[in-house]
Amino acid sequence: MDGQSPPRVLPLLLGLQLTALCPIAAVEIYTSRALEAVNGTDVRLKCTFSSFAPVGDALTVTWNFRPRDGGREQFVFYYHVDPFKPMSGRFKDRVVWDGNPERYDASIILWNLQFDDNGTYTCQVKNPPDVDGLVGSIRLSVVHTVPFSEIYFLAVAIGSASALMIIIVIVVVLLQHFRKKRLAERADKELGLQEDPVSKRQKNKIRLTIHRTDKVAYGQ
After folding, report:
1. How confident is the model at residue 36 (pLDDT cuts 50, 70, 90)?
2. In terms of pLDDT, which residue wins out, 46 or 155?
3. Distance in angstroms (rounded) separating the CA atoms of residues 44 and 107
4. Rg (CA), the chain
5. Distance between CA atoms of 5 and 13, rounded to whole angstroms?
6. What is the pTM of this model?
7. CA dist., res. 139 & res. 29, Å (int)
8. How far apart are CA 61 and CA 121, in angstroms?
9. Sign of CA dihedral 31, 32, 33, 35
10. Cis peptide bond upstream of 23, omega within 30
11. By the 8 A CB rule, do 113 and 39 touch?
12. Is 139 exposed, middle or buried (0-12, 13-18, 19+ CB in 10 A)?
């Protein structure tokens, strides 16, 4: 038996060497972790991944759902070369494939959100020989309205500032217009006052000339 042990050890050593040369890597999954969406709208559940192995026909994507209040895990979507939609259950006719394996994207779109869609959605990607790795998860909260974010507040602030600037410009233009109008009226008035003495002197000269003419006519 001692003479037969070396041949049995050689295949084992060869296998260990091949494993060392071609290690199995893990698929890295990236998701948004937490997401809020309004009831009755559509939402994109984004899931991207990275893999050392080239993406091929062996790639598989599995989406599952676990309700927030507990309960069993439910099937949502499966992809392997082609997308496979659920044929029954709560997600029937409500989920579509929106990924692109060549771009390492395994996202889906969920239509017509309902309040009982609250829960955790998991995205698992296997790309042999990369089959290990953590499962990505998204905690979805379906709400009546989405709270204002910093982007909304910034947009409102910019809009308000722009409207205020327009109002200020209009007020300045109107003030300048009325100021010029008042100055013009004042100038016309002053010009009229300056012309009145001249008119009076001319009238006095005319009256004096008429008076002298009358004296000559009557022989005075």
Report:
1. very high
2. 46
3. 7
4. 45
5. 13
6. 0.57
7. 15
8. 13
9. negative
10. no
11. yes
12. middle
Q: Is 30 in contact with 103 (CB distance < 8 Å)? A: no
Taking Cα atoms as reference points, which of 33, 29, 30, 46 lies closest to residue 110?
Answer: 46
Two structure tokens written together for 216:
């000559």
* 118 burial via Cβ count (<10 Å: 0-12, 13-18, 19+): middle
Please provide the size of the chain in residues.
220
In this structure, what token pair is assigned to residue 144? Answer: 């009546």
Query: Which DSSP letter does residue 73 get?
Result: -
**Which pair of tokens denotes residue 73?**
């895990």
Q: Measured between alpha carbons, how far is 9 from 52 in angstroms, rounded to an integer?
A: 31
Helix (H), strand (E) at residue 3 = none
92, 111 contact by CB (below 8 A) = no
